[in-house]
Amino acid sequence: MIKLIQVNEITADRYSRIAKQLKLKGTPIPTNDIWIAAQTMEHGAELITSDRHFEKIDGLAYSILEGEDYSESIFKTIMLQMPWQSLLLEES
User: Fold this and answer.
1) For domain 2-90, which CATH number applies: 3.40.50.620, 1.10.3720.10, 3.40.50.1010, 3.40.50.2300?
2) pTM of the model
3) What's the CA gap between 41 and 51, in Å, rounded?
4) Mean pLDDT in runs of 10 for the chain (92 residues)?
5) What does the pLDDT read at residue 77?
6) pLDDT score recorded for residue 57
7) 41-46, long-range: CB within 8 Å, 24+ apart, which pairs?
8) Contact yes or no for 87/3 (Cβ under 8 A)
9) Where are the domains of the chain?
């Protein structure tokens, strides 16, 4: 099942907490990626990405994919990073 998820007040709260944490640590990342991380955390999902800067976010469940066969990766619930939206994929 694929769901397009929207930003809400909980997402915005998580965004602000992540942005503050990154600022205090002096490790900024792109704004859009903070939104992606906030949505991932809100939905208890795992982010699948090739961007290593997500490693800077404490408490984020993520996997960095590098040159492997993506079809071999099995995840029950994942968040795919896409421009301007996030898709939540759930095994049904």
Assistant:
1) 3.40.50.1010
2) 0.73
3) 17
4) 80 96 95 91 86 92 73 48 52 52
5) 44
6) 96
7) 41/14, 42/10, 42/11, 42/14, 43/5, 43/77, 43/79, 43/88, 44/77, 45/77, 45/78, 45/79, 45/88, 46/75, 46/77, 46/78, 46/79
8) yes
9) 2-90
